[in-house]
User: Fold these one by one.
Assistant:
Number 1:
Amino acid sequence: SQTHTDTLRTPIVAVLGHVDHGKTSLLDKVRGSDVTGGEAGAITQHIGATAVPLDTVSQMAGALVNPDDFDLPGLLFIDTPGHHSFSTLRSRGGALADIAILVVDVNDGFQPQTKEAIDILKRTGTPFIVAANKIDTTPGWNPQEGEPIQKSYEAQSQRARSKLDEKLYEIIGEMSEMGFSSDFYWRVQNFQKNIGVVPVSALTSEGIPDLLGVLMGLSQRYMKDEMAIDVAGPGAGTVLEVKEERGFGATLDVVLYDGTIRKGDTIVVGGANEPIVTEVRALLQPRPNAEIRTEKRFNKVDEVAAAAGVKIAAPDLENAMAGAPVRVVRDRDIDDVIAEVQAELADIEVTTEEEGVVVKADTLGSLEAMANALQEAEVPILRAEVGDIAPRDIAVASTAREPEHKVILGFNVDVLSNAEDELDHSDVKLFEDDVIYQLIDEYEEFVDEMKR
Ligand code: GTP
Ligand code: MG
């Protein structure tokens, strides 16, 4: 049901790329924040969302984005993790996206997750541009804070310029190996045939005006029809996180990608055991330019239209799962909506075996990431679940045959108070960390010790 309305939906822009290539730093520059500074181990382990309004975009982009030329309300950025374990979150980000920025460190070039990101974009048919980041690290670079790339280039020595060009041509070569024709963005005539490469620095903000200009231009020119959705239709979204919020109990951080959600709406949410049917009590919207992952002061609103990041407060959300779908029922048959949610959930699964370790994680995304990382490390899994460590988990872990499998690996979870005592009196060993690869390293060291 495509009804044309005067308002266009905000395009969803996913930021993808290899670990440490500068995705979060680039977004920090665009929204004027320091999310990177607050991350454990300085790596992103969740997907986040930030609504950047048109006036912020045009402020950052200067002459390259004149707000009068656009009727898009702004851009909704989805930050994704680059660490190899989080392929599910990258896929989810890619699946949500209307358009993407592939971030590539000019010194590091294409790395495994750069290629994985391209595969995701190919599979989902998402148009994208390449942000060739960290140009400030070019030997002899003369930084031009916040300037468009043309101006920045003019201020460089011949030597620095050709050093950078060399790196950019390497990226263009790698793109070609992956089956994409690409070029410096200012030479691209048709962005549907050629992928634009935009040199940027998340340290000096050079080239960020260009990046925003290209994104806005592309969205407006090629995606206007897709953005003209029936914004008044029943809302559809994806849970990013389930969080306790004082005064509200368990709440959901959601990216709404279609329709509208209103206070009082009946919603269906994917849960740990079965779909949850509940009624929206409050809708809390992050302020413009705030990352939903870190926002502390939300605005209470009566309705939210796609695309947006929104925190939903409602009863009975304790068993909701990050990564699960959220659907507004509105005038539809509730059983149809429940079936839809169940079908989507069935696609997300972790394979378990008869013998292995117990894994607990805070979200579906991190649980899958743990499962992938353990599979790579050839560690079998007996049980994998979302949630804090409960007495039952200790009971299950103690049934493992091999001593090296009488183990619980907890990622970003707590030990429930009634499980602490039990843990002390059992032969089950607990490993906890909030960085996946460290958690797995710790476990592998333990196994090595044991076998010595
Ligand atoms: P993950 O989320 O873990 O995949 O990493 P990321 O891609 O979000 O990278 P992040 O923004 O956390 O940056 C990684 C490191 O690179 C940080 O130390 C940043 O300060 C640094 N960095 C990012 N962009 C630039 C840049 O343009 N120039 C320089 N010199 N350093 C940068
Ligand atoms: Mg990051």
Note: The longest helix spans residues 158-177.
Number 2:
Amino acid sequence: AEGGRREAAPELADSALRATLAELQHGLMQPQARVSPKFLYDSRGCDLFEQITRLPEYYPTRTEAAILADSGPAMAEALRGSEVLIELGAGNCEKVRGLCRSLRPRHFVGVDIAGAFLRQSVRRLAEEFPQLQAHAVTADITEPLALPPYIPQAGRLLFYPGSSIGNFDPEQAQRMLGQMRALLSDDGGLLIGIDLPKPIQWLEPAYDDAQGVTARFNLNLLSHVNHLLGSDFNEGDWEHVAFFNTEHSRIEMHLRARRPLIVGWPQGLRHFAAGETIHTENSYKYPLPDFLDMLACAGFGACQVWTDERQWFAVIHAHA
Ligand code: AVJ
């Protein structure tokens, strides 16, 4: 399609925009084209992800919520003294409410790449918990994270729920766990949710639901990329694909070209053959022992694990 090219995202700062454009272009020009899953989360993407968490097929959110609710008192005991609750990828700040109630921390820090959405959620949380000093930090948590100097060092609990760590390949996940450990002094800890391996008949529908919400979520990435890059992707030219890659123990999401396509943007273009894909997301399902090894390698100490009766999902507290 011609004539659809716009100026690239004018609201981003120059250097951030240059880095984003370089990253997008580089991924799109690879033999197996790819776009990072972080580009799924523009404001429409955040709304669609919230809808996904309520789908009957999407078990992770409600399974984790049930674990957090059912293990409440035992968990609160294990997490005693956590004065500074820091949620990575906080999004709508929905999951942290229970912890705010049971732990009564003095500070909450929400960290997320989607700044405007985050600030709104943090504002709502602050209204609900008037004693809480609530802060919003807009950051890409894959980058080494520096927290503002007014966040106390002692008594930090990092909260990384939702199996978001599953989006990263094992090497990067290992690196990120190391970065998390580096944010903590010896009295700190990490509370992390991970999705566990299970039969494909449950895994695949969770990422390819009957109502097509996940398909819209995946396709929306193209509109976000158009906005950032000034490209001329048409959602209608692409099809949502999700499957479990057994060898790597991960769900893969792709967008598949329905016909031969030429996609252009101000600095380049790419031909796609019919059936060629853009890889948009991995969602790793780590066996629990493997993940506990990764925590130990990152320098974490004793771990306590809570899970559901089917062992579909685990919430792990790792001491610094
Ligand atoms: C937010 C990364 C945990 O991998 O399950 C949901 C994202 N992608 N449906 C996941 C997602 C498609 C989700 N995480």
Note: The first strand starts at residue 33 and ends at 34.
Number 3:
Amino acid sequence: MDATPTFLEQLIAAGHLIPMGVDGLYGKSGVFEDILNKLDALISRHGAAQQAEVMRFPPAISQQNFEESEYLKTFPHFAGTVHCFCGDEREHRRVLDCVAEGKDWTEGQKASGVVLTPAACYPSYPVIARRGPLSEEGVTLDLLSYCFRHEPSLEPTRLQLFRMREYVRMGTPDQVLAFRQHWLEEGEKMMRSLALPLIIDVANDPFFGRAGRVLAASQREQKLKFELLVPVNSEESPTACLSFNYHMDHFGLIWALRTPGDEVAHTACVGFGLERITLALFRHHGFDPKAWPTEVQAVLGGF
Ligand code: ATP
Ligand code: ZN
Ligand code: MG
């Protein structure tokens, strides 16, 4: 019998993840949150030179913006829509009866007009587009949001609700590509300062269905997405902790984002998976941050 506990079981035993009865949904210990918040601050220090505009959105967007984003075309399998009870007293009695009888009570629920945010940058494009054409400098944003993806998993690094810190750039293709190149270097520097083993590789998004395979191949070929990967669950399949995405004119076209020269704006974003980086630190330095290498503690501001 193989009694070696999995990484997930070890995290639960250490109290850092608190099971809630659903795969990919966990409470976190105070220590976990302390590390995550210190990472958030470390990212801010690495991003300070960007003079990004800080915006914080709740973890949901309007159904209209969600539909406009075309997320349903490529990721219908991840989407989480909020549905609500909108019935009368009779319907209320039916719902309670269904619950009592163990039947599906959700049938009569109606779409609320609110959809859970799939990536931290989604709320920002329509908001910036509403301001009118970009200035010569373009726009750089600093975002952080809980994000939802319906991808239940036993890997602690694949959560259904997780926090994504992002910097987003909107502007000319040159501005946007320079931003992505900057973050490829700055992100690597930051992760090396945490003494984490890593590789950077070209990547693709898990687009849905047969058409998705074509999209994924083209995304790779054009090198639109890079990931910074750290072995967390296993050496063989390292985990994407940072992603560097060039969307070209995709969001610019959808929301009519314009440059001062009246061209369609291009956009790019760098995403930091805050839980994933925290888990990578646990994996490589142990479950007690007070026992981590002193350099790593110092980079995070001490424990
Ligand atoms: P993966 O290939 O592992 O599914 P991804 O390509 O879907 O990752 P992005 O869509 O680029 O990741 O999201 C940005 C960042 O958010 C990732 O680099 C990762 O750190 C984090 N992230 C993505 N999905 C999850 C998840 N299910 N749980 C925790 N963190 C996640
Ligand atoms: Zn993004
Ligand atoms: Mg994914």
Note: DSSP finds eleven helices and twelve strands in the chain.
